[in-house]
Amino acid sequence: MDHPVRDWRRTAFVAAALLLLAGLLIAVAYTGGFTGRDAAALAEATEERTPPRITAAVTLTEIGNTIASATIAVVAGAVCWWRGRRDEAVYLVATTATAALVFTLVKRLLERPRPPASAQVVRETNESLPSGHATMSAVALASIVVVAWPHLAARGRALLVAVAVLWVGAVGSTRIYLGVHWFSDVLAGWTLGLAWAAVGAAVLFRWRAREPSPVV
């Protein structure tokens, strides 16, 4: 295992880079830099809609909503607490809770409109940027990967990452397919969620670096 000081410094660097990227994506999206790609993605989603696909997308978007993502993180945190891994439990719950506050604040500040009502399968009227579904699924699953990583063998790690990527990607994609988010909303949400998980991990590793090493 790497030295705790190297862990938190490296993670802090990754977190800073991801936060910068998230900020840039949000700024570009807000100023219309993704207008062409957003319109193309919405048009493609509209053309590919069929009743079975719509049903599947609505079901998945409901299962993967912001409350469900937060609940997954809380349950994982409870398991960590029960196993005596208190710092990991706090990390999971605090990171996910604060991510919800961050994406809500950004939405309120920017007030980017949703796609037109005529394109929406399910009606959404609040602010659009970034996608809450994308942000919360990304931060919850990324945080779980962080705490589970040291306790898994290589095959377990690969499986966990694959499941996380597929789930987060699928949940975010339903928001575009259902016409309730622009492509750039979802992209910004994914990046913000990953960035916030990295911020929390940097704090966790920094805390561990402050603790005295056990005497052998």
TrEMBL record:
Gene3D superfamilies: Phosphatidic acid phosphatase type 2/haloperoxidase
Protein name as it appears in the record: Undecaprenyl-diphosphatase
Highest taxon above the source species: Bacteria
Coiled-coil intervals, chain numbering: none
Origin organism lineage: Bacteria, Bacillati, Actinomycetota, Actinomycetes, Pseudonocardiales
Pfam families cross-referenced by the UniProt entry: PAP2
Residue ranges of domain Phosphatidic acid phosphatase type 2/haloperoxidase in the record: 89-201
TM region(s), chain numbering: 12-34, 54-82, 89-110, 130-152, 159-180, 186-205
InterPro entries tied to this protein: PAP2/HPO, PAP2/HPO_sf
Keywords: Membrane, Transmembrane, Transmembrane helix
